[in-house]
Amino acid sequence: EAVRERPAYIRDRMESVDLILAYTHLTRDLLVANGIGRRKIHVSPYGIDTSHVACVSTQRRPSATLRFGFVGTLVPHKGPDLLVRGFGMLPPGVDATVSIHGSEKGYETYAAGLRDLAGDDGRIGFPGPFSREELGSVLAGLDVLVVPSRWYENAPGVVFEAFAAGMPVISTDLGGMSEFVRPGKNGLLFALDDAEDLARQLRALIEDNDLLGRLRAGIEPVKTVGEYAGELIELYGTLAGTSGGR
Which end of the chain is more exposed for a tag (fewer CB within 10 A), N or C? Predict the structure, then answer.
C-alpha cells in the first residue's frame, strides 16, 4: 500500500518546492513524464572530487597493448559479462587485454559465470575488489574504461573519474551515460545489451591507431565540487531574490 501511495505523495510534496535539481536530462524527463516538476526543474550535473585521480594521466604506464577495463561491482545489471562476451568475439590475435575490477560479494555465482565465459583466455583478468584510495592506481593501468550497464545510470561517478584521469569511455547508449559520453569525441557508445555492437567499438579502437589519442584529446575538464557549490549558491541566491547574494 505504501508503494502504491508513494507516487501521489511525491507529486503532492513537490508542489510546495520552488526548484528541483536534476543531475541529468534523463532524470528531468522521467520526473516530468510522471507528473512531477514541470517548469521548475533545473538540470545541473554534480561536481566530483578529482584529487584521487588527478595524477593518473601522468602516472599511466605506457603500453603497446590496448588495455580495456571494467570498474564496479560484479552484478548482472552492470553488464561486465557483455564486456567479456564482446571481447571474446574479437580475433584471438589482437593485442589487447581486459581487466574486470570489482567486488563479487553477494553475486559469487554470477562472478563464477564471468570466469567461465573468459575460459582460458589469458588476456582477460579479474584483479578483484579495490578501495576508493586505490582507484587511481587501477585507472593508471587502463587505457579505456567500459561501462556496459543494462539499466539507467543517472550520472555515474566512474565516468567522470575516468574523464578526470584523461581516459576515454565506452558505454551503453542509454541516458544519462550517453549525455556525457559523446561518440567520436571523448568515447564511444554501443546498443543496449548488445555484445556484438560492443565488440565493434572495441575493434574500432584496436584497428585505428589514432582513435585513442583523438578521444583523449576530446575529453573536457570535469566539474569540480567547488564549481558545483558555486552553482548552488547562485541558485539559492536567485530563489532568495538576491541574485547570488548570501
Answer: N
Other Cβ atoms within 10 Å of 239 Cβ, number: 10
**Tens-place pLDDT, residues 212-224:** 999 999 999 999 9
Task: Write out the H or E segment, with its range, that includes residue 98.
Answer: strand 96-101
At 242 the pLDDT is 56
Backbone φ and ψ for 89, nearest 5 degrees, come out as: -85, -10
Q: How far is it, in rounded angstroms, from Cα 187 to Cα 60? A: 18
Residue 176's pLDDT is what? 87
For residues 23 and 160, the answer to whether their CB atoms sit within 8 Å is no
Residue ranges of alpha helices (H) inside the chain are: 2-14, 25-33, 56-59, 80-88, 108-118, 135-140, 157-164, 177-180, 195-207, 211-217, 225-240
